[in-house]
Amino acid sequence: MTRAIRTLLVANRGEIAVRVMRTAKAMGIRTVAVYSEADADALHVATADEAYPIGPAPARESYLRIDAILDAARKSGADAIHPGYGFLSENAAFADACEAAGIVFVGPPASAIRAMGSKSAAKALMETAGVPLVPGYHGEDQDAGLLAREAERIGFPVLIKASAGGGGKGMKVVRAAEDFPEALASAQREAKSAFGDDKVLVEKYLTTPRHIEVQVFADSHGNCVYLHERDCSIQRRHQKVVEEAPAPGMTAERRAAMGKAAVDAAKAVGYRGAGTVEFIAEGESFYFMEMNTRLQVEHPVTEAITGQDLVQWQIRVAEGEALPLAQEEIPLKGHAIEVRLYAEDPARDFLPQVGRLDHLVLPAHLPGTRVDTGVRAGDTVSIHYDPMIAKIIVAGADRLEAVRRLEAALAATEVVGLATNRVFLKAIAAHPAFAAAELDTNFIARHQDQLLPPPAPADDTVLALAALSILKEEARQSAETVDAADPWSPWGLAPGWRLNRDAHVDLAFADREARLSIRAHFRPGGFILSLPGGDRSVEGEVEADGAIRARLDGVTLTARVIRTGARLTVFVRGGEYALDFIDPRVASQAATGTAGRLVAPMPGTIIRIAVAEGQEVAKGAALVVVEAMKMEHTVAAPRDGKVKTLKFAVGDLVDEGAELLVLEDA
Question: Left, alpha or beta for 66 (phi > 0: left; psi -120 to 50: alpha)?
Fold first, then answer.
C-alpha cells in the first residue's frame, strides 16, 4: 500500500538537511526545517519552505528532542520525517514515536535499528546469520576487570569501541595492558556523552586493514539489493577522511561475496530503506564490523557510480513503493571520490576550529565536481556541532581522472577565517601512494611526514601578490579622498613622490616569525619590487572580491588575496599562504603570546581534572580534559613541575586560550 508524502520535515541541520531538501523539492514535496537558536540564520533554514525553532544551541536541548521535533511536524502538517544522519537518525524510540504520531519515518523500522544499534547484539546476530566476525568480546557484562581480561585473551593490540555509536567517538586503540584502564575510561566517557550509553565492546585490532562498506537498500515487498561498495580506508582517529567507489582492486567475485553478506545482514533484521554494512578486510578475508541504519555521509560517491538518487529511493520506499531497480539492473560506471573539508587545524593536531567563515569559495563549478555544504560565507562554525564545512565529490571515467579532478577541486577551494584541512587533503590527493591505490587504515600515519610538512615560507611570487594587493588598495583609498573638484590632483595618486628622488614605498610583512621588507618603486602601469630574491616587475588589477590577474616579469597568473584586518591570505597555484601586513600607521600589532601557559585548546567544557593543587607532575602527565564537539582533548604537562593553581572546576565552560592552571617548578 502506497502513501504519497506531501510535506517532509528534515530533523537535522547542515549539509545533509540541505541535500535531502534538494531531492524533496525536485519531487514536488514541500519541505520543513527545524533549527536551534544557534542555527536561526543557517542555510538549511533558508532552503526549506518553512522552518520551526526547537530549542537552545546544545543538541540535547534541540536536535535530540523528540517532543520538540514532533511538535514542529504537527504544526507544519508534515506527514513524513527524514532524520538525515547523526542526531536521532539511529534512535529506535524516535522511529517508534513517529509511527505512534501517524508520521512516516523515512528510515528503517525501529526493530531493525534496535537490532543493529548495539554493536555487541548485532555481532551476535551476524554470527548466527553466518556473517564473518573479527575476534572479540561483545558481551553484556561491562565490569572493567572482565573487559581487561578479555583484552588479554584476544591479544594486544585491541580496539575499544562504543557499542551504541560510531564516527570515531568512544573508540580507542590499546597496544599494551597497562594502557587499557585509562583508555577504557576515556572511551566510556566519550560514548556516554555522544550516545547516552557507555557500553563498549573489545575487538582484535588488525594492523593493516582496509575499511570497505557496502550500500544496501530494501523495500517492504521483500526486495533487497546492494549498490556496490565504497573504500573508506583513509582515516584519522577512526574518522573517515577520503571515501571512494568502487573500491580499488575489487574483483567481481569478491564484490558479489561482500554484497551477498551485506544483503544477508540486512535481511536478518527485516531491514527497509537505506543502510550500510561495514566490513574490515585484510588479505583475502573480510569481517563484519557494524551496520549503519541510515544514509551515510559518503553516499554521494555511490550516487555518482550508479547514477541513482539515494534520497529519492528512500522517499519512494517510505511511500511503500518497490525498489526502482533489481540487482542485475544497478549500473557501475566510472569512479568517484569524496573528501570532507573540515574546520580543523592540522598544525595543532587537527584541533576543531570555531568562528566565522570570512571568505568561502567551493569548486562546484568545475567539471565532474559536486559540493554538498550547509554553510555560506559569513556563517559561523559553532562549538555545538560537527565542524564540517563541505563534502567535495569528484567523478571521472576512471580512478585516474577522478584523482586529477580531486586535486583540481581542492586547488580551487578557498576558506578564510578558520584553519581547515584543505592543504592536508590536497597532499593526500597528490601523494604517489594514493595515486597507486595503496590504501589501508594506516595510510595517514605511514605518510604523515609528507602529508603534514612544516608550512612553506612565502616565496617572491606570494610576496609580490601581497604587495600588489596592498598597493592597489592604498591607491584606491587615496583616490577616494581626493577633492572631487580636482580629480587630476597628483596627491590622489599616492606614488610616494620625492623631490629629485625615485618614487617608492616601503612595505613590511610578517611570515610567522620572519619579518620581510619590500620596496616598491613606481613605474607607469605597475611597480618594480625589491624582493628577497631580487627585483621583479609586477602589474595587474585587484577586483573587489580579491581576485588578481597579475603579470610578474611578463608571466601572467591568476590568484586571490583576501584581507581581514592585518592578515592577508594569498591563494595561488593551489597553495595558500598567510601574511600579516605591518602597517606603519598602527602603533602596535604585536599579539600577546601564550608561550608556557597551560590554556584551553578550544572552547569547551571541563569534564575531568586529573591533578590537585600542590601535586607534583611529570612531563606528559594528563592534567585537564576538555570536551568539545563530543570529543575529548587532554591538556598535558609540558614539563616536570608542581600544580600551583587550578583556575576552573569540572563542568565549567571555558573559552579558547583560557588559562586552565598554573604550573611552577617542583
Answer: alpha
